[in-house]
Amino acid sequence: MDTKKTLALLQEVKDGTLTPEEAVLKLRMSPYEDLGYAKVDLHRELRQGVPEVIYGSGKTPEQIIGIASVMRENGSENILITRLSPEAAKKVEKEIPLDYDEVSRIGIAGRRAEVTSSGTIVVAAAGTSDLPVAEEAARTAEALGNRVTRLYDVGVAGLHRLLSNLDIILEARVIVAVAGMEGALASVIGGLADCPVIAVPTSVGYGANFGGLSALLSMLNSCASGVSVVNIDNGFGAGFLASRINHMGDKK
């Protein structure tokens, strides 16, 4: 049950058209809907301000359609579907309105383009090969109501490319640093910025990169203060966390 429906329910209690006991029963019945293959959390937006996010990998298009349809029927907008393959997206968009991006593999059902925070999130990617993860972070943050500035191909192998955008880095409220190889970009940005830096290691690199493990360990051992690290290739997690931090600035 979304915020609008909850407020309407409380108004019915206030008006006397619904007893408190009946309202409690409705609230107890509404936390989730059991589809058999999924229990859709309908209270997520009420609790956290953001609807449940659908992880598309491993789900059939029919399952994704079923989950998203239930969420839309209960008032959810900006429903994020991550790791959605192009083939699955073609089937899903036949049943529900879908804004799909092949680079990030993110689909947004019932998109509501609205900026709800005054701060800016900067998403910086070391190389072009890191763009799928960087775009996953950027599009996640945008879907959650954030203004996003992209700085792409600014890896430390050509440090001047990053330093020429120092003004953008210093104006950010939170920065997402995406890098594979040795993952040095996060430490460099962490030494320049006065805001939180979320480091995202990617699986981009040669053999000794170990599928992103070397970048992960480098970022975890960063000598720069204020750098936190999410899992390998987890652009979604970084974008979501960046959104939380960005909106906290407005709450204060």
Automatic annotation (TrEMBL):
It comes from the Bacteria. SMART domains: AIRC. Pfam families: AIRC. SUPFAM superfamilies: N5-CAIR mutase (phosphoribosylaminoimidazole carboxylase, PurE) (SSF52255). InterPro entries: P2CMN_synthase_LarB, PurE_dom. Residues 119-251 form the PurE domain. NCBIfam families: LarB. This is Nickel pincer cofactor biosynthesis protein LarB. It comes from Caproiciproducens galactitolivorans.
